[in-house]
Amino acid sequence: MRQRMQRWRGFSAITGLMAACLVGIVLVREYKPDALPPELRPARPVAERIVEKPVEVVREVPSARAAQFVAVFQKDEQSPAFVMTIDTDKRTVTVRAALAGYDPAVISSATYGISLEPLGGSPTGQPTGPVMHAKLVQATP
Q1: Is 128 exposed, middle or buried (0-12, 13-18, 19+ CB in 10 A)?
Q2: How far is CA 22 from the centre of its chain?
Q3: Cα dist. 105→77, 108, 114, 140 in Å?
């Protein structure tokens, strides 16, 4: 009986030692995986997720926006005096001086005229439609 007991004690000591080693490896693997040899290190979990990234597609689309028009008012054949732009989408008319050396008194006392013409402009070079006149008014101080 003593011999059998010795055998079971030896077997349980070896089994306990193996269990302690296994617990040690599991703990090291969880808390200090870099201390283990590469073949015993756990594989890093790869988290896969679908990431939706908005993609901006730029393409040229014909504009539904109305055209802008430009007219040059000339003092004489060689000297442009004002540039007028009309934006039909914003419904704005802008008049800018084209010459650096202009007389403010002349500009403030001048009368400006616009005629409504058919598409393509006046065939004669003279106003064919109704003409509207206006004076400049200072909009900002």
Answers
A1: middle
A2: 57
A3: 23, 5, 21, 17
